[in-house]
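2.7 Reproducibility. Because tokenized structures are sensitive to small changes in the input, we list the exact sequence used for Alpha/beta hydrolase fold-3 domain-containing protein, including any N-terminal residues retained from the expression construct. No trimming or masking was applied before prediction.
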Amino acid sequence: MASSSDHEIVSELLPFVQVYKNGRVERFFESERVPPSLQDPKTGVSSKDIKISTNPDIYARLYLPSKFINTTEKLPLLLFFHGGAFCIESAFSLYHQRYLNVLVSQANVVAVSVEYRLAPEYPLPIAYEDCWTSLQWALAHHHSDKYDGSFAHDLNEEPWLKDNVDFNRVFLGGDSAGANISHNLAMRPADENDIRGIFLVHPYFWGSKPINEVEINMELATKMWLFVYPSAKNGVDNPVCNPFADDAPSMSRLGCKRVLVCVAGKDPFKDRGLLYYEGLKKSGWEGEVELFENEEEEHEFHLYGPDSESAQLLFKCIASFLNK
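Resulting structure tokens (single pass, no recycling of outputs):
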């Protein structure tokens, strides 16, 4: 017989998550999980699932165009971080499997799509740490002497990275929350040659002071941040959420050479993306930043309609960025 705690809600972030008194977490708004593919019939991309770390347990889905398997041709490496408000979705979801298949096919890259742990069971900054660990794991395939030696005990070398990656062309990228993660990893101290560039698609950034009329009524964006990172100093003005907060480090420290910012015209986060683009240009950062806009589209539209003309234009832009 079910107890009252089975149905008593203690916290929620609608329309995404409800948390019950007995500890159960119910997620909504997610796409189905799908297995990897030996060779996707539409794109010719192979994928497989691996374990990156055993302490903590971190998993990922790897992608490689099938034509490069059993070769030593060197390709760019993309560390990809999915969106989902830091609390839903997965590297193993249908949406992201379709997305990565298309992007990897068009760009001819090796991709590592990271299954970072989600709030509320694992509140931020855990996702940032999981993704940082994943980046260090990937880079350890190139120069293990400079990174955490524990990987050698936890893992076998991954042949798709060892055989097919040009480690002079390492990129980070993601959508929404994943774009936020990409920026924050690039802000951490690292060798300047480790990351060539980052792409941010419909990035989630926020702040306590609205920058347009739309934000005045966007209570969900603030509520989301406090739900996934309850211990964040200064709330939505924590620098990992608001790169232009008073105590945020200078954007001139961004540890890569190139940035692509992608926004959508009907996305309520659009102006935050534009602020990021303009702020980076004015910061004294010495790299190259590009802006791409799908004028008539919504937040993360490309996940729901990957075959649309607008989505194809977005994919083409990202693929071009990864190959410059």
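The chain has two domains: 1-30, 37-322.
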